[in-house]
Amino acid sequence: MKMICFDMDGTIADLYGVPDWLEKLHNEDASPYQEAKPMWDMERLNTVLHKLIRRGYEIRVISWLAKDSSEDYKQAVRQAKLDWLKRYHFPYTVAHLVAYGTTKANCVRKMANAAVLIDDSEAVRNGWHLGEVINPVECDIIERLEALARGE
Questions:
Q1: Which of 11, 35, 96, 135 has the most CB atoms around it within 10 Å of its CB?
Q2: Distance CA 135, CA 69 (A)
């Protein structure tokens, strides 16, 4: 199965652009996950993702929950992230919203024979051995995905 896996925070959702985001997370306030603005033109991104879906790609989200948080807060963060994806009509098949530090490749290893990871974390990209990695800080992911949709 061909798969494209997206991180959320710092990749498609500008969590780090929310004022006082870290302090709020330490206080178990899920509002930064709700308030984060999209980092890309979501209409263009969604259009290219639908092209890729028609070409046989599955779109997944693999995103960490807040570090060192209670079970109630983990659930609040999961809901906030799902609400964000819904608000911006992000076309995904499965969202793996997992504990902070989880090896992201383990979420899809048994399902993907070729998987592209789009993640702003160098450590996470370095730990991905299932295919290509894309650093959203260094390139226009929409242009890169459009090239993929053209078979390039």
A1: 11
A2: 27
Which strands sit side by side in the sheet containing 57-64, from one edge to the other? Answer: 94-98, 57-64, 2-6, 114-118, 133-134
Encoded tokens for 136:
């959203």
Residue given tokens 């092209």 in the structure block: 51
pTM score over 0.90: yes
The string of pLDDT tens digits covering residues 32-76 is 999 999 999 999 999 999 999 999 999 999 999 999 999 999 999
* 60 contacts 7 by C-beta, under 8 angstroms: no
- H/E element, 63: strand 57-64
From the list 118, 28, 42, the residue with the least C-alpha distance to 76 is 28
Residues constituting the chain = 152
| Three-point CA angle 143, 83, 19, nearest 5° | 80
Distance CA 14, CA 106 (A): 25
Interatomic CA distance for residues 50 and 129, integer angstroms: 25
Q: Give the domain ranges of the chain.
A: 2-149
**Phi, psi at 38, each rounded to 5°:** -65, 145
Tell me the CB-side half-sphere exposure of residue 150, using CA atoms within 13 A: 7
Q: Which fold has domain 2-149?
A: Rossmann fold (3.40.50)
